[in-house]
Specification:
Blueprint lengths: L15 H17 L4 H6 L6 E5 L5 H10 L3 E6 L2 H14 L4 E4 L12 E7 L8 H11 E12 L5 H10 L6 H10 L3 H9 L7 E4 L3 E7 L2
Parallel strand pairs: 1-2, 1-4, 2-3, 4-5
Antiparallel strand pairs: 5-7, 6-7
Amino acid sequence: MTAARIIETNEGIQSEVTAEIFDEFAKGMRDKGWNGVAEMMASGINGGDILEIGPGPGYVGLELAKQVNPRSFTGCEISPAMIRIAEKNAREYGIPARYVQGNGMNMPFEDDTFDGVVSNGSLHEWENPVQVFNEIYRVLRMGGRYCITDMRRDIGFLKKYMIYFSTKPKEIRPGFLSSLYASYTQEEMQKLLNSSRLKGGVVVKDFMGLSITGEKH
């Protein structure tokens, strides 16, 4: 039986020191290819104006932008510390990304602004996922696609500790566990998605996580 969710945080990583440590971790995840970019491309997100929710240090969106060459790339991030790191990383990638401070539940964008919306590893922190899903629907253009990837807490004991002991730097390991315990199962997420304006979307589970994909109709 899967244990109940334990809410982690809805404030993101605000500390400069913690943000720097997370940047090192995220870079390692990028290098391993454990970042959801393949799923995002497979979902049909292939250019136009793209929004990333919760980009953190930015590697996921920057890797995606490097592959699909969007017309514009925007990140909506709650943490000023993370925005500073993401802006630095974007400069190093040579990608003209724009990062805006905001909460996914009330994003500072006009209706029908983006052709694609992506997010990796932040879903478990969303205070109200249904409200964020409704915001995604609002800011997407008709026919626009979305792909949201995250961990799932029912991965099982062996997978959990395999990932735990391979996580570097080791300072991140307690945060990995708290994030895992705050994540959703496939059944929970499908129910939340179906109660939002994105109710036509599909939730698929893989080795260690969930992928939520669909199109605005």
